[in-house]
Amino acid sequence: MTTFDDRERAFETKFARDEEMAFRVTARRNRLLGQWAAAKMNLTPEETDAYAKAVVQADFEESGDEDVIRKLFGDLTAAGVEIDDAAVRKAVEDMTVEARRQLIEAQ
Predict the structure, then answer these.
(1) Domain harbouring 32, CATH code
(2) pTM above 0.85, yes or no
C-alpha cells in the first residue's frame, strides 16, 4: 500500500504546487496590467504603484478575469484613453505570458 500512498502524496504535492504557481502568475499578471494601464493614463510613479495594487485587489471580486477586464476598461475610458474591449483582452493575454516568463526565470 505504501506505493499507492506515495503516488497519492506526489499527486497532491504537484496539484498544490501547480495551484500556487497559477495564483502567482495571476497576481503578477494583474500587477503588470495595472502598470500597463497606468502608463496609458499617464499616472505618476506613486499613482502607478497604487493603481497596480488596486487592479490586483479587483481580481478578488469574482472568479475569472472579467472583474479585472471591467476595471481596466472602465478606468481607461474614464481617463479618456481611446481603447476597446479587444485591446484590453489582448493585454490580459500578453501580460499572462509575460508574468509566467518572469516567474519561471526567477526560479
Answers:
(1) 1.10.790.20
(2) yes
